[in-house]
What does this fold into?
Amino acid sequence: MNYSHFITCLALLLTLFSCTNKQQSHTPFELTGVWVLQHILYPSGSEKDLTMDGEGTSCLIYDRENNLCVCGISTTPTGLLIQPIGTNTVTLIDKGGGEWLYLEDDDPHPLHVTDSTITIQRMGACYTYSCADDIYREWGDDLLDIFASTSISTETANAQKYVLSAHERQQANYIQWLIATITVVITLFVAYYIVGRRRRQQLQLQLQQIQEMQENRPQPVRQAAKSVEDTFFASDEYFILQHRIATGELMKDEEWEQVEHSLKTVYPGFTTQLRSLHPMSGVEYHTCLLIKLRIPTKDIAAVLAREPSTISSLRKRLYKKVFDREGGAKDWDDFILSIGT
It folds into this structure.
């Protein structure tokens, strides 16, 4: 490459670099965000520094269309205290070199821009605002919502608004969730109590009806029922059934159906009354059938593949469920033997 070509290429690169810088310099400046007043320089030369602590300071909030919301702002241990002051429309005219003409509702003010501050001159005083990205990120939407939902007027200006910090909002949401959860739990508990009370009342009524039915049967009916019962327990059918159960082998479904059929023949109302007392598992129901057949506990345990102690606990538990009081296995057996006859 000769010297003239080198000079030509260098000039071209300088031209491109100059154009790039020119484009960058004309990149539109955006005020979007929150700017907090930190310093005032008065025409007399006196100065004043401000912070958001204590009485607070002034704050400028710009949306993406450079609409301006002016408010007072101060920090609290749990958030921000906002005092809406007014709203304006803003126009920016670039004068170059970080200098702008700043128009609020067509009222011009000199504006100087740096990386993190803006300085606006009003009535000879210079007001320097610092960019508060942290406030904009956490509360920007809340601050703009306050102005969107508030009509600024003489009567409403300086009406204080309060916004929680993200941590406090999280705590508030947790408390709300906790209250809602406790409310649901209490509601379910009350509903369970009411349903349980109604169930107990219904059960007591059923037990009372069963008792009255037994007590009010005429003597001839009682004698006839006793005769049927005695005949069954002396029959070959009962002997074969008793022997089958005593083997301790698990019974098939059809065999349990035969047991139910035999009991309905001797005690017509037994299975209906039994099922109406309380929802029972298969083991609980079969245990009651065998109790009614006068089968010993050890044989009940064997044919149901359970320990005798398990069968005893089951009977106590059933008594507690039905009568809502403590009772022994024999108390449940006596009850089973008394119904359906």
Remarks:
- The chain is about 55% helix and 20% strand.
